[in-house]
Amino acid sequence: MLAYLRQFFAEKSVLEVETPLLGHSCGTDPQLAFFTTEYCLSPWRQTLFLQTSPEFAMKRLLAAGSGSIYQIGKAFRNGESGRFHNPEFTILEWYRVGFNLSQLMDEITELIERLFAGQGLLETQRVSYQDAFFSYTGLNSLVFSYENYCEFARSAQLSEAVTICGHDHALWLDFLFSHKVQPNLGENSLCLVYGYPACQSSLARINEQNNQIAERVELFINGVELGNGYHELTDAKEQNQRFDAELAIRQQHNLPVTIKDQHLVDALEAGLPECSGVAIGLDRLLMLVSGKTSIEDVLSFPIGRA
After folding, report:
1. Are 161 and 178 in contact (CB under 8 A)?
2. Is 268 helix (H, G, I), strand (E, B) or coil?
């Protein structure tokens, strides 16, 4: 699989790069937990972070003029272990300069369909987040109605969502999507869900025609999430504001303190080229390609045996 991926990008003249696993800062996403370690150079001690993704460093390379790039490497997320999770995992991340989200989805489709060639994968489906969410919940994902969301949760035997999600629209979307929508996506096929609500924009830019929608896509096969991609945000001021908002949420929920990546903000100020990028979990991908049901079946050393 790794050889195939490298051949795929070599054919397209996309450069393979390598970025540090240790960094002075880390992502601020409140949903991600990270590992830290101590760097000791007597008499100094400094906390460093194991990276949850190579994204920020790769964007610094893009801003420095690298052109289109990809990376296959390790990433680390604390507190994640299970059928589809291991705290240390292998990630494929690539960025295509000059691509919009539609062009990125075309390339994702080409890569996945070639990888699954001969395995009976059905034709790739593309569906908007709004349509997928409405199909399985009857709810409007772009306009939050606390009463309607609560009513649906109770009728779907998910009454715990009322307490867990409160009046947080993004949290409601995550909860209902994972329980009622995602299991139905990509039955023996690749399903690309695009146009996420703006409250789930992450590092994606907002759609120019509709500010309720973010230029974001996720890919699913047989209900398993494989990757997350964006038409990348290039506005340094907006990115800095998003980092600060996420740091505030972390503080409100007493989550571990992290440090925003000022180097990334500086790179955006210097000028990130127009580009789109995506990250794919390769352990999950190999699991599906080989017909397994758990990533432990394709890991030589999952955390329990590391």
Report:
1. no
2. helix
User: What's the pLDDT tens digit per position in 82-105?
Assistant: 899 999 999 999 999 999 999 999
Structure tokens at 303: 């955390």
Q: Is 98 exposed, middle or buried (0-12, 13-18, 19+ CB in 10 A)?
A: exposed
- What is the edge-to-edge ordering of all strands in the sheet holding 88-97? 15-16, 69-76, 88-97, 275-281, 224-231, 213-221, 189-197, 122-128
DSSP E strands: which ranges in the chain?
15-16, 22-23, 35-41, 44-50, 69-76, 88-97, 122-128, 189-197, 213-221, 224-231, 275-281
pLDDT digits (tens, 9 = 90+) for 148-158: 999 999 999 99
3-class SS of residue 141: coil
- Taking the domains of the chain in order of start, what are their residue ranges? 2-121+188-305, 126-183
pLDDT of residue 80: 83
Rounded CA-CA distance 228/89 in Å is: 15
Task: Provide the 8-state DSSP code for 255.
Answer: P
234-255 tens-digit pLDDT: 999 999 999 999 999 999 989 9
CB 199 within 8 A of CB 213: no
Q: What is the pLDDT of residues 43-53, one digit of tens each?
A: 999 999 999 99
The verdict on domain 2-121+188-305 having CATH code 3.30.930.10 is: yes
Q: Which of 208, 206, 169, 204 is nearest to 279 (CA)?
A: 204
Phi, psi (deg, nearest 5) at residue 257: -75, 135
Helix H or strand E segment including 19: none
Q: Name the pTM for this structure.
A: 0.95
In DSSP terms, 89 is beta-bridged to 75
CB proximity list for 94: less than 8 A, separation 6 or greater: 9, 14, 68, 69, 70, 71, 277, 278
